[in-house]
Amino acid sequence: MKPTNDLGRDRVGPLLVRLALPAIAAQLINALYNIVDRIYIGHIPDTGDLALTGLGICFPVLMFLSALSALVGMGGGSRAAIRMGEGQMEKANEILGNCAALLLVISAVVTVVFQIWKEPMLLLFGASERTIGYATDYLGIYLWGTVFVQCALGLNNFITTQGFAGFSMATVVLGAVTNIILDPIFIFGLHMGVRGAALATVLAQGVSAVWVLIFLLGRRSKLRLQTRYLRIRPSVLAPVVAIGVSPFIMQSTESLVNIALNASLKHYGSDLDVGAMTICSSVMQVFFMPFHGLAQGAQPIIGFNYGAGQLERVKETFRLLFRSAVTLSVLVWAAVELFPGAFVALFNDKPELVEAGVKALRVYMACAFMMGIQSACQQSFVALGQAKISLFLALLRKVILLIPLIFILPLIFTQNQVFAVYLAEPVADFLAAACTGMVFLRRFPRILEARRRELESHSTQ
């Protein structure tokens, strides 16, 4: 396979479709790693509801590991795309090598630290005496595959950045198919339960990681892993981290949100409510993945053309990204609000958990139609290398708004405090999307005008 996508000259509409559709498919398939585990675990006879709740307690850790890969991968991919647009291929390769080295260091540190502290950490996250055993069994095995997660997710961004959307999609397809095949074998066939689900996921991520490394070491890749660049250079990694901190915060704060939600629901409700939240967060994770895919498809186009000075193509790409994201978010919202029971039943069929899950999901996703605005504007700032703005917007929704609301609203709606905990999500979604849209309308034209003046200044020198 050869790349057929010219980021600087192909028509923007078809180009975005060719890059975004495989990325969306890849994101949805990537979500299957954890979602398939939950579906199988939720249907374990007799103990499926408790096992599902225990796995939900692990969700903040899994999201944090994914966030670390986004910190390096999305930040590095954005910087590499701009360098490629400027024609500086060696600097782009240096970014790739430094990011690979940083991912290995992160993997080693996280594995050791989290293995030591996993049980007290999970108890803090909302585990009870009935669910802690399931949570530690799953996480104890999953953590040994951290290096696979970092390589598969983090370095895959450098494949997407080059326009190899099909190869990027294949990375997660290989892993997801492996996971789907191994899950029932380990969980039910070998009677390993949640430990079998974790082992299947680790092996699946290993397959994805090997695929990524083979590609980036091969001749087809324009960016190649080279031993001379496999080192930690702060001058190279500082701007990478500055840009990557926005998607990192978007995902890592999801961990903090889940911790706050689970702890509050355990305080005001029961394990049943924590289980319902596990289902809600699983559905949200699946439905939010297409927005990441759209952003991944648009990011190399925006970054390359911004670096190359083709600003009209930058504007055209954003307009198309925005329309697509808003349309998708409305469709997602309508599907969940109209058919919540169908989504809840995927994870567990116990009547009491299904009833609690349906009520929670309708409230939790009430403002999902606003997600398109938030995603399109914030991710465009990332693609343009606007670290400070994207960082603020990443903090706004989860840290500034959602986490405080989780603790404040139950003090206001005292007659139904469990409902108040779920209500925090749509209130934060609405306020954050409105603010992000207004900031983008004000800042986007100024960013492009500053780049135009910079290019004119260079041309006259």
Structural write-up:
The chain is mostly helical and 461 residues long. The protein is built from 16 helices and no strands. α9 packs parallel to α15. The two termini are 41 Å apart. The mean pLDDT is 84.
Which features does this protein show?
461 residues, mainly alpha, 16 helices
What's the short version?
With 461 residues, the chain is mostly helical. The protein has helices at 12-42, 48-85, 89-124, 132-142, 146-154, 156-161, 165-189, 194-217, 234-268, 271-308, 311-338, 340-345, 351-364, 371-383, 387-412, 417-460.
What is the strand content? under 5%
Structural class: mainly alpha
Spatial gap, N to C terminus = 41 Å
Characterize the overall form.
globular
N-to-C SSE series? HHHHHHHHHHHHHHHH
Using the CA coordinates, give the radius of gyration: 22 Å
Q: How would you name the oligomeric state of the polypeptide chains in this document?
A: single chain
Task: Show the helix and strand layout.
Elements: H1 12-42, H2 48-85, H3 89-124, H4 132-142, H5 146-154, H6 156-161, H7 165-189, H8 194-217, H9 234-268, H10 271-308, H11 311-338, H12 340-345, H13 351-364, H14 371-383, H15 387-412, H16 417-460
Helix pairs in contact: 1-2, 1-7, 1-8, 1-10, 2-3, 2-4, 2-5, 2-9, 2-10, 3-4, 3-5, 3-9, 4-8, 5-8, 7-8, 9-10, 9-15, 9-16, 10-11, 10-13, 10-14, 11-14, 13-16, 14-15, 14-16, 15-16
